[in-house]
What does this fold into?
Amino acid sequence: MITIIGAGPAGSYLGYLLARQGKDVAIIEEHDAVGKPVQCTGIVTHSIEKFFKLKNGVIAKRLNKVIVASKNNRIAVNVDEIVMWRDLFDKFVAGMAEKEGVKILLNHKFIGINGKNSVKVKDRKNEKIKNLKSEIVVGADGPYSAVARAVGMNSISKNYIGMQAKVKLDMDTSSFECYFGTDFPDFFGWVVPESDDTVRLGIGCFENAEHYFYRFLKSRTGKSDVLCWESGLIPLYNPNKIIQKGSIYLIGDAAAQVKATTGGGIIPSLKAAQSLCDCIINNKDYNKEFKKQSGRELLLHLRIRKILNKFSDEDYDKLLNLMSQDKVRKILKKYDRDTPIPLVANLLLKEPRFFYFAKLLWR
It folds into this structure.
């Protein structure tokens, strides 16, 4: 038996892949429904369709443009993005797993590892403790992974505070917006439409999130009212994080498998699920194999983030000027942020002035 803790996309997709390989898999989910609570903007590139074709009901919007704004500049870039109903997406992936025979136990909370081949969980309906036999345990249980803590794999990690809310706002529903500069320290702000009059507006930062959020909300909407909150932590990728210890593995946010440039973790976690499935089936070292498959990409995202975090408002203005060129726009359209190596290589080849920003690593 393989036990996966957490029925998010990382855990469910891994369960699906393992079940297709003939493995007996159970997923433990502490909430009473898959997809709760929503703590994600739910916007992904078209690269997600390399993994599976999304049902129309999962898709809230398809976007063909991003508005990128700095303090004194603003450009539009053509893109191919999908905004998902995140709860329905989670249920969609969990449904794939269940069709392959994966058992999903809702309202069950992971308590700890009970010996070598047993997992202790609490049935939250009746408060009873259960011991489940399991040769392999996978923590797909988020930034504060209880699995990682239980086996001493919770190395110190930095997390952004992602403060997001649904608000009423009329905007071009074929585009989304990203804001950069000193009003959005260490990360950025976003406005993503989900319907004709409702958007997901948020910011990420290491501290003072409430202050920056409400200032952004007021400046963009003229109001301070929110419909509901969808906030959560965004892990910062750590290339030194241990993600396997014997028969215990971490995946997704629990393993900090997140693009440091954007905070996106859905597609990296799906890639990680493929890698981890291969490691479990073929008895490979997941720490090494994941780095072979995705380590270079996530490390590049991290280095770009370190450069961006040293930008002044003038640097962002200069960056947007370079991005506004037709030759750069074509590259940004061809390669998305989930293929960062060819994206950056082609940008530097076509526009060497991007090298200017590399020096900021040593500023």
